[in-house]
Amino acid sequence: MFRNQYDSDVTVWSPQGRLHQVEYAVEAMKQGSATVGIKSETHAVIVALKVDDFFFSITLFFQRAQNELSSHQKKIYEIDTHSGVSIAGLLSDGRILARFLQTECSSWRWDYKQPVPIKKLAESMQLKLQANTQYYGRRPFGVGILIAGYDKDGAHIIQTDPSAEVVSMHGTSIGARSQSARTYLERNVDKFEKSSPEELIVHALLALRDTLPAEENLSAQNTSIGIVGKDSPFNLLDDAQVAVHLNQVSTHPRTTAGAQGGAEPMQM
Amino acid sequence: MFRNQYDSDVTVWSPQGRLHQVEYAVEAMKQGSATVGIKSETHAVIVALKVDDFFFSITLFFQRAQNELSSHQKKIYEIDTHSGVSIAGLLSDGRILARFLQTECSSWRWDYKQPVPIKKLAESMQLKLQANTQYYGRRPFGVGILIAGYDKDGAHIIQTDPSAEVVSMHGTSIGARSQSARTYLERNVDKFEKSSPEELIVHALLALRDTLPAEENLSAQNTSIGIVGKDSPFNLLDDAQVAVHLNQVSTHPRTTAGAQGGAEPMQM
Amino acid sequence: MFRNQYDSDVTVWSPQGRLHQVEYAVEAMKQGSATVGIKSETHAVIVALKVDDFFFSITLFFQRAQNELSSHQKKIYEIDTHSGVSIAGLLSDGRILARFLQTECSSWRWDYKQPVPIKKLAESMQLKLQANTQYYGRRPFGVGILIAGYDKDGAHIIQTDPSAEVVSMHGTSIGARSQSARTYLERNVDKFEKSSPEELIVHALLALRDTLPAEENLSAQNTSIGIVGKDSPFNLLDDAQVAVHLNQVSTHPRTTAGAQGGAEPMQM
Amino acid sequence: MFRNQYDSDVTVWSPQGRLHQVEYAVEAMKQGSATVGIKSETHAVIVALKVDDFFFSITLFFQRAQNELSSHQKKIYEIDTHSGVSIAGLLSDGRILARFLQTECSSWRWDYKQPVPIKKLAESMQLKLQANTQYYGRRPFGVGILIAGYDKDGAHIIQTDPSAEVVSMHGTSIGARSQSARTYLERNVDKFEKSSPEELIVHALLALRDTLPAEENLSAQNTSIGIVGKDSPFNLLDDAQVAVHLNQVSTHPRTTAGAQGGAEPMQM
Amino acid sequence: MFRNQYDSDVTVWSPQGRLHQVEYAVEAMKQGSATVGIKSETHAVIVALKVDDFFFSITLFFQRAQNELSSHQKKIYEIDTHSGVSIAGLLSDGRILARFLQTECSSWRWDYKQPVPIKKLAESMQLKLQANTQYYGRRPFGVGILIAGYDKDGAHIIQTDPSAEVVSMHGTSIGARSQSARTYLERNVDKFEKSSPEELIVHALLALRDTLPAEENLSAQNTSIGIVGKDSPFNLLDDAQVAVHLNQVSTHPRTTAGAQGGAEPMQM
Amino acid sequence: MFRNQYDSDVTVWSPQGRLHQVEYAVEAMKQGSATVGIKSETHAVIVALKVDDFFFSITLFFQRAQNELSSHQKKIYEIDTHSGVSIAGLLSDGRILARFLQTECSSWRWDYKQPVPIKKLAESMQLKLQANTQYYGRRPFGVGILIAGYDKDGAHIIQTDPSAEVVSMHGTSIGARSQSARTYLERNVDKFEKSSPEELIVHALLALRDTLPAEENLSAQNTSIGIVGKDSPFNLLDDAQVAVHLNQVSTHPRTTAGAQGGAEPMQM
Amino acid sequence: MFRNQYDSDVTVWSPQGRLHQVEYAVEAMKQGSATVGIKSETHAVIVALKVDDFFFSITLFFQRAQNELSSHQKKIYEIDTHSGVSIAGLLSDGRILARFLQTECSSWRWDYKQPVPIKKLAESMQLKLQANTQYYGRRPFGVGILIAGYDKDGAHIIQTDPSAEVVSMHGTSIGARSQSARTYLERNVDKFEKSSPEELIVHALLALRDTLPAEENLSAQNTSIGIVGKDSPFNLLDDAQVAVHLNQVSTHPRTTAGAQGGAEPMQM
């Protein structure tokens, strides 16, 4: 990516009508470990790799030890009983936004005695993200977020990015090498709407597996699964439950030549 | 466009009396997918391409998947029962402005128990846009908006741009390759005033089709249509209704050699 | 105009005791389409070209279509029953200032139950304009304004510019090629005081015509006329009325070799 | 004047202990048309050239027309019944300061039911001017002001400049080519104290005449005269009164070889 | 580490999607003397080297004298009866954060009459740290902190760093040459859960010893030990208690060839 | 004095631990005309040259005329009945500080019904001056001030400078060529304590005279004398009184070869 | 010390994890005249050189005269009856901090009717100092301070520096050439605890003497002594008392070859 004079301040347009700081924040999102979200008529599923390879590049010396020494590195958060989020990019930014959404949910509950409609949640998110792309003294959030939710309008997967794009999706993936996951999703998009919750989880895991290099694999240690749907509140599965679903996934041979797209792991 | 020293801050004039940051924001508008608005004596119509090719250039990796995976990418928003907007440029900026207009409408309803006159809405918009061209710490909005409305003064198409120009039009088009659409509009402007709503939609779609490269075409998937008029509140047509109108359009042979004007798709 | 290091901030003096940002804003005013104001003992007239050639240079692609597609591009605004303004330069700045004057007028009416004296209006304007030449974080307004008014002290033509100069004039012209108009005014200044309203309008139009290139002419489409005077509230003439006055103008042969002075149309 | 790195911000000292921005603002004052103030035991007189040659250099195209087309260009303002000011430099700055002094006067009258002592007025002015030489985000005022006043301590001529120097004078002149006027004043300073009001005006006009190039002369059109004194409130003479005094002046042959000192008219 | 243009302001993203100022603050953390934290089912232990080799590099001239002249240089602070922290990096930043945590604890006690859950404490810390990575006018904290705590959910070791990463760990080490300590921890992680408090302290000290150069050793003078657990409030051991534990450590031969990882002591 | 990169902002330290902006402000003080202060057991005297040669360099064109045309240029101000100040440097800064001290005095009188102790006055001054050396957006005051006062602790001469040094002195001199005055003071310091008020004034004038070039001399026109002491409120002597003391001074032959030290008059 | 691009703003980290502005402020501390503090079981003593050689370098022309002309230049301040401070570095910064501590003491007395614990005083100081190392718009304090105090926990010597390090010491010295003093302190540290107040003062003076060049010596004029302890409030000794202690010191031959460490006197 070429360098220029219009990329040092978020409030400045380049002569080509671009906001470079926003684009650079997107780079941070692309380097987070991948996450996948898909929905059926009745359920929404988000799955994520727990290994966060973004700040590993900053705090290099944690890299090897962490899987064994850390209790758990959360990539999926419950927001309310009817929604949860997964994060790709700068984790500390992601947590700030997750907490923002939690506050929005509890404010709505306080005011209206019911869960916030997912559409309203998406609108609040869009306002929050956009302000950091326009006003001086703040940087754009360096994180993409998938919101899985279920309300009276059905299941939702909402995708946000640092440019304040907030889009409703049938299925999507963001983060490192997520193009491979999206390729899987496009090929199978027609099957999602009528999938059972269990089938939906397997689809999501198969897409997520495609983001891994050939020599790595999903495991209960590096995989998080969250699901929400009709009559079932948001549930972040425990390791045993994750293992059950991974068993099913392992029966599907891995055919892709290797993960594509997204960003390569960052070099110091 | 040549580079200079007066383009890094919105509050600075160049020696030629220009505001470069405003001009660069106009570039962002020119790269949004095209939208067209026209009006008759009794109705106002806005049509838009759903594919937003601006931020695709930022979030490249979404580009191929989106049409199939996303539920819908809105380019047209209802503002009130008597008005709607279409957007060309930075979508997240456009949504902020759409929400601003929605708030203006509901404030007016609260105060006066009736819909806001479109002229008042245009004035509020002008104030909002101008402030971001004059004061430090904010960038101009990188988006153009067409407001379609109907009130006691009849039908309205209002065009706004990042320079805070807010103009009432018989017909207009903004966004990528919109010059081709405007050429169509100029040739047919005399027919609009007495057109039926259906004829008006066809005119708008024919103009919009002229913004597409020769190898692409309008479809229910990539086309949005909004209409408002006498005794008919603002209506964002569903896919089936869009398809009906596109059928009519397809009976008109496409004669232009190719789309002209506007900005070429941005190169990374 | 040579470049230097003292022109990037409105709050900075150059070693020669100049405020370059103010001078650059004056350039924006010079590139607006021309407007003329003159007064007799009993009336004040402002006339203006509707084509705004300043932002056309920014939003090039509107240029050809606008005259036919736009409903009307206002260059003259009523401020109160006893006053109106015409604008040369950055139209969105001009509208902000017109609205500011409207607010001043209605505040005065609220407080004193009578129209604001034009002199008080001019003082408010001077304060508003000067602040943007002295304090950090705002740019000077890029627009010149002519105020036509009538109060107990008689008729008034007030001229303002980006440097916060606010001067009472017998007659004046600002905007592109306005020197030609001022030449006409100087030659005929002695006739204004006793002119009838109709004669005053013809003088103003003749001066305005002199700002046009030889191959262009005034028309009901491109000309706005506002008049205010003793016992006649401010009136922005409609196209038919404008046509009547233009007929009279056309009986005066055009003798000037071509428009002079002001700024040449800006090159991109 | 040489260029350096310490002149771009008013709050920065140069290594030589100078405030360059203040010095540059003084340049603006030097380029304003000249004004002269002198006092006797009982009266204070200020005279000024109406032609403002500073912003003429900015708004060049007004230059020729103005004398004939403009009603009047004020250089002298009444502040209260016992005081008035004349201005040299950036007129819009001068008017802001004149209005500031008017407000100070009316505040004092409100609080104490009597005119403000001139000494208090000078102190307020000093505070106002100094702040703009010390704090960030404002530029120094680009104007010099002469205050003529009469109170229980007698007649006063107060001179202010952009550096916040506020000095009581027997006689003084500021503005373009004012050195010639000061030379006259120094030669005749002993005569002022006992002069009659009429004699005082003639002295002031003779000093002012010395600031003009040999080929120009004072006229009722380009000369303003203000006087205040014992038992006579501040009076800005009308053209007829000015003409009477100029007649007396014309009986004094002009002997100086040409105006000296101050700044040459600025070159674009 | 290479230099670039995106590292002078915390609010700016580099084209690679990195926040250089955050990375540089991590360098400050890496240069602090090492600290180690581990937990069993019932207890959490933090140990630290008292010698702070970071600001010694700033205030060089203190270096030799300090161990003998200073009473004690605290590296471990009690936060509440159920928690304590150890610090690696810029000590004055660390103390500010320790005091922040103390205030959080007492606020919670005031509101709820019980100790704050460690998880809530970690969330407050994350918010506090993240804000300094995103908003203008503050730098990121240059310190890493280990929180040892015990509450109804058991024992906790929380690790924070300047990027606002806040992670729950079984065992960890931060600061100069901490890679050697983490290597020890990884090899022995399985033994921690069932360790007695005494065994836990010995593990922590053995890991800490591995961060020392071969020619240095732990002593009661340079070693701090803090422990908290079930039915035992946070206790910062005195020198005699430290000596007892060090005796046990000395029975374990030192086998590592030398400390690895982390930062080398900074060169002036 | 050499140039470097650490002198453009008061809040920045140089690598050598210096504040260049403070040092440059000291330069302004050194270029003010000299002032001298000394005290006996019972009295404190300040004398000053009225010619301010600092801003003369800015407003060059006033230089010759001022002595004859200006009423008086104050360099010494009464602060309260028991104290006064003299100023060297930027006069407008000095007057701001003099007014600040006057306000401090009257606040104290209001609160305690007695004059403020000189020590308290000095502390207020120190706080005021220091803030402008540490916080962004203001420049240090470019002036040195001598405070002469008498209170229950006896007579005081307090010296302040732009670095916020506030020191109690037996005798001192600041301003242009003040080294010569200090040389005189050092030679005679033993005589001050028991001097009569008249002798004290003569000592001060002899020291002041030593700051003048050989060809200049003290006169009632260019010399100010202020004195305060036991049972005698602060008194700024009138011209006749000054002349009496100067007569005494003229009986002392001038022996110094020429003034030394301080700054040479600044070159444009 | 090498120059780089990360030292112009206190809020910026260098790539090596350093805060250059803090380090430069430490340089200012190193150039202040030396001060020494030591404590026994029952008493704390601070001694200091009155000659402040830091701002002498700024205000060079005071240098020679000051010792004879100034009444006294305080380097030691009483803070409360149980504590006092000595200062090394920028004196005006030091006085601001001394006043801050005095306010802290009186606030505590007001709230709790007893003297503030020295530990609390140190914590307040740490907060105050740290803020100026982290937030934009202020520079770090350029001063080191020794606090001598006595409370229910015994005698205290607290050392602070610009990096906000606040450490409790048995004995210490800061300022120019203070390494020589610390060398003395280290050699004799074992004797302090049981010393009588008189012995403690002699130790402190011997350490202070070692900071002087061989050709200079301590005298009642250049030496300040403060002491506080059990049943004896803080006492700043008068010249006679100082002389008595210096007599004792003179019986100890001076053996050091010359002062070491700290900064050399700064070169202009």
TrEMBL record, chains A, B, C, D, E, F, G:
The protein's matches in PROSITE patterns, at most eight in alphabetical order, are given as:
PROTEASOME_ALPHA_1, PROTEASOME_ALPHA_2
| UniProt keyword annotations, A-Z | Cytoplasm, Nucleus, Proteasome
Q: Which GO terms describe its cellular component?
A: cytoplasm; nucleus; proteasome core complex, alpha-subunit complex
Q: Which InterPro entries match?
A: Ntn_hydrolases_N (IPR029055), Proteasome_alpha (IPR050115), Proteasome_alpha-type (IPR023332), Proteasome_alpha1 (IPR035144), Proteasome_asu_N (IPR000426), Proteasome_sua/b (IPR001353)
Which cell locations does it reside in? Cytoplasm; Nucleus
**Mind telling me which Pfam families this protein's record contains?**
Proteasome (PF00227), Proteasome_A_N (PF10584)
Q: Which residues form the Proteasome alpha-type subunits domain?
A: 6-28
Respond yes or no to whether keyword Transmembrane helix is given for this record.
Answer: no
Highest taxon above the source species? Eukaryota
One record GO biological process: ubiquitin-dependent protein catabolic process
Function per UniProt? The proteasome is a multicatalytic proteinase complex which is characterized by its ability to cleave peptides with Arg, Phe, Tyr, Leu, and Glu adjacent to the leaving group at neutral or slightly basic pH. The proteasome has an ATP-dependent proteolytic activity.
Q: Which PANTHER family match?
A: PROTEASOME SUBUNIT ALPHA/BETA
Q: Which family does it belong to?
A: Belongs to the peptidase T1A family.
Protein name (record): Proteasome subunit alpha type
